[in-house]
Amino acid sequence: MTAARKGAAAVEVHDLEPDQFLEEVHSFEFWFEAVDGYLGGLTYGHAPAAYLPAVAEPDRSRLITALCNYCVGETAALEGASGLVAIAPNRLSKIFLATQAVDEARHVEVFLHRLKELGVKDPEAEVNRQASPGLLQFKRRLLELVAGKDWEAAIFAQNVILEALEYTVFQSHARDADPITREVLQGVIKDERRHIGFGENELGRRLKQSPHIRARIGEVKRELDRVLLDAVEDTMRLVGTSADERHQVVRSYLDAVGRLGFA
Question: Contact, 161 vs 197, CB < 8 A?
Answer without folding.
Answer: no
